[in-house]
Write a structure and sequence with these properties.
The chain is α+β, with helices and mostly antiparallel strands. The protein contains three helices and eight strands; from the N terminus they run ββααββββββα. The strands form three sheets. The chain has a three-stranded antiparallel beta sheet with strand order 1-2-3, with helices on one face. A three-stranded antiparallel beta sheet has the order 4-5-8, with no helix packed on it.
Length: 142
């Protein structure tokens, strides 16, 4: 698997974690909170652009889990989700699985996932089994 970058943006209260390899390019982040998320700027996250509450609310809307957060007062750790696992198929996009998962790759390596995991359905992702947004450029229908 290719080098997976993780970036963190923090203020005094919250840290936003971005894992670009998980992004499915739904654009919900910058359409929902453009004062914080701006794909034309570098860095593209301006954590000072809005309140902690607004940032958390928008991050929670990320369908792939590429954006997550933790409160700075808490110890950063692996979050788990309570409840049943839910599977959602996005039209012309990935398969979203909500819940706590263990994903095993072809070499037998396991990784723990929680919250939302986006799995490729189009077959074009360079980050299989995860979606990398290739369904958009390949014009996947399904």
């Amino acid at each position: 698997m290719e080098n997976q970058i993780t970036k963190k943006y923090t203020n005094e209260e919250v840290t936003v974690v971005w894992q670009p390899h998980m992004c499915i390019h739904s654009a919900r982040c910058f359409k929902g909170l453009p004062t914080v998320f701006d794909r034309h700027k570098r860095p593209w996250v301006t954590i000072e652009g809005d309140t902690t509450e607004a940032i958390i609310g928008q991050v929670k809307k990320c369908p792939s889990g590429a954006l997550s957060y933790y409160m700075n007062a808490e110890i950063e750790g692996e979050a788990t989700v309570e409840g049943n696992t839910v599977v959602e198929m996005l039209p012309n996009g990935p398969l979203l699985v909500y819940g706590n998962l263990t994903v095993k790759d072809t070499q037998g390596n396991e990784s723990k996932k929680s919250k939302v995991t986006a799995f490729c359905r189009c077959g074009q992702s360079s980050n299989k089994p995860y979606c990398d947004g290739s369904h958009i450029t390949s014009k996947f229908e399904g």
